[in-house]
Each structure stands twice: as structure tokens, then as C-alpha cells.
Design brief:
The chain is an alpha+beta fold. The protein is 48% helix and 7% strand. The protein contains 14 helices and seven strands. The chain has a five-stranded mixed sheet with strand order 2-1-5-4-3. A hairpin with a 5-residue loop joins strand 1 and strand 2. Helix 7 packs antiparallel against helix 8. It is rod-shaped, with a radius of gyration of 33 Å. The termini are far apart. The relative contact order is 0.07.
């Protein structure tokens, strides 16, 4: 049932409308002299100066340059009428209501960045991705440059694949190289990383795969070269010259390559791996099968040193490939 209008108080509809508007307006964006009202999808409203939007957003600058339809209501100053045009609504009390697709948290964070208010640093890449998407959509270079700094702060640094995805998309080459180096602790072929990898373009995915493969294959080839024992070399005991089989070294080398495939950084190889793996212990304990000789076949200290040098010389970022 429609409420009857009180003829003794013609301003009552406007007062009610303004009260509803104030109830939904974000307290940090409630300036009464702001001429634009932005609406989040949860119907939270943000009052912002059009000058701020025009100077910080190419999208809003283009929007406000469009011809606006004048209000057709003769009583525009005494009622809450609206006319939709070009995707936004012109209200009767000299403010524009623009309904946006972003949620209130994302819109608040974005507006804080362009309005010079204290910024609450995002703590998840879901928030970062939402802000980057909105900043890109509204052509806001300021927030994008600020987010570029924030992605290099904890706890976001603990998610190198998400950082690599964002950096690759926006052409942040130094950040992308840093992120690619941090991904060397990950097995990027594991199922839990597929969702993130799908967000990358083809070139970015191939560059990352190439880095991980280059480290594994680089070490594999190096371990087949002098002074390491090659896979086809017929070897003899350095003391008694009896022919020996380097099966313990081959097993250790195979273990090293498998480890590099799952953790290309190589820290687990040159650290605990070459000291405590069963394959490593068997290799360092291997002796000449001639019982009268029993010469130790491998120099543990020198082998560890050479492998560390090999790992240190491998490509470290996508920029090194």
C-alpha cells in the first residue's frame, strides 16, 4: 500500500530518501559536498568528488565527458526522482549515483588509494587480484603502482606463483624475475598449482617451465662431464686397476635429478640430501670390490664442492634463460 503524501510537509520524501542514503553511506566517504555517489554491489554507497575521479581514472574521465541527459522532472528539488543514462543515475539532489560491480571492501580500498586516505594493505592475493582487476578496468595507474609495491611485502611474498601471475600480466619484469626465482622451491607440476598456472598467458607459463627444466637438465648434463664419472665410461680402481661398476654413483645421480625436478632450487640436494640420503651414504661408502685393495672410490668432500658449484651456476630467474 502506498504511503500518502503529507501536504503539510512537501519535503518529507526528500528527507526520507536522504536518511536512507546516509544509512548506507560508508563513514569514510560521506562528505556532504561530494557530487558523485558510487554504489558497491552490496548497496554500500561512497560519496566522492568528481574531480578526484576524473584526475585519477581514465574510465571516469571518459564517462564524465559524455553528454548527460537533463532531468525531466519539474520538481527535481523536492523529490527523489532519477533518470538512468550511460550506466549511471542522476539523482534529484545534485549527486550522481554510479552503480559498480565491485564489492564494498574492494571499492573502499581502491578509493582510499586515490583519495589519499590511509591504505589497509591487502593480506591475500584474492584481494590483490580483485583490486588489480578493478584498477585496470577503471584505468587507475596510481593504485596499480601502489599495488606493485605492496605485492613485495609479507605475507604476499610467500605466494610466488600468484606474484608471478600478477607481475607477468602487468609487465612488471623485475617482480616477475624475482617471483620466478622464488618458485624454484615449488614443484610447479603439482596439482595444487594448476589453478594459478591457468591464469598465466602462454609465454609466461613456458618461461617458467623452461627455467625449472633448465636447472634440472643443466645439472644432469654437468654430472655426466669430467671430472664426474660419465654414464658410458669403463672405469678402473685408481689403486689396483681392477674394473669397477659405478652403480652407487648412478643411483645417487638419479636421486639428485629427481630432487631437482620437484625442487629446482637445489638446496635440498647440496644440503641434507648429499649427506643423509641412503643413496648418498652408499656412494660415499663404496669401495673397490678387490678385498685386498678396498680403495674408497669417491672423494666425498670434493664431489660435494663440485656439485655445489654446479647448482650455483644454474639459471636463477626467467631472465637468465
Amino acid at each position: 500500500m502506498m504511503e500518502s503524501t503529507d501536504p503539510s510537509n512537501p519535503e518529507k520524501p526528500l528527507t526520507q530518501a536522504l536518511t536512507i542514503l546516509e544509512d548506507k553511506t560508508h563513514p569514510c566517504f560521506a562528505s556532504p559536498d561530494a557530487d558523485i555517489i558510487l554504489g558497491a554491489k552490496e548497496r554500500t554507497l561512497f560519496r566522492v568528488h568528481s574531480y578526484t575521479l576524473k584526475t585519477t581514472s581514465g574510465w571516469f574521465r571518459s564517462l564524465f565527458s559524455l553528454p548527460q541527459r537533463p532531468s525531466t522532472s519539474p520538481s527535481a528539488t523536492s523529490g527523489f526522482t532519477s533518470a538512468s543514462t550511460s550506466g549511471f543515475t542522476s539523482t534529484s539532489f545534485s549527486a550522481e549515483v554510479i552503480h559498480l560491480d565491485e564489492d564494498a571492501h574492494t571499492l573502499e580500498s581502491l578509493l582510499r588509494m586515490i583519495c589519499g586516505l590511509p591504505v589497509h594493505a591487502p593480506t591475500s592475493y584474492d584481494a590483490i587480484d580483485a583490486l588489480l582487476f578493478a584498477a585496470e578496468k577503471y584505468d587507475m595507474p596510481g593504485p596499480i603502482s601502489l599495488l606493485r609495491i605492496l605485492v613485495l611485502t609479507p605475507p604476499l611474498l610467500d605466494q610466488p606463483l600468484r606474484l608471478y601471475a600478477a607481475a607477468s600480466r602487468f609487465g612488471w619484469d623485475p617482480e616477475a624475475r624475482q617471483a620466478s626465482a622464488q618458485t624454484l622451491t615449488l614443484n610447479i607440476h603439482a596439482p595444487e598449482h594448476r589453478a594459478t598456472l591457468r591464469k598465466l598467458d602462454t609465454d609466461a607459463v613456458l618461461a617458467l617451465f623452461e627455467l625449472h627444466r633448465a636447472r634440472r637438465e643443466g645439472l644432469r648434463h654437468r654430472l655426466d662431464e669430467h671430472p664426474f664419472v660419465g654414464s658410458t665410461v669403463v672405469a678402473f680402481c685408481p689403486r689396483c686397476r681392477r674394473q669397477i661398476d659405478h652403480h652407487t654413483w648412478r643411483e645417487l645421480k638419479y636421486k639428485v635429478i629427481l630432487e631437482m625436478d620437484t625442487r629446482p632450487l637445489g638446496d635440498t640436494v647440496v644440503g641434507v640430501g648429499l649427506l643423509e640420503w641412503p643413496e648418498a651414504r652408499a656412494c660415499w661408502e663404496a669401495k673397490c670390490p678387490n678385498g685386498e685393495c678396498a680403495c674408497v672410490l669417491y672423494d666425498k668432500t670434493e664431489t660435494l664442492r663440485l656439485i655445489r658449484e654446479c647448482v650455483d651456476g644454474l639459471p636463477k630467474t626467467t631472465g637468465d634463460i
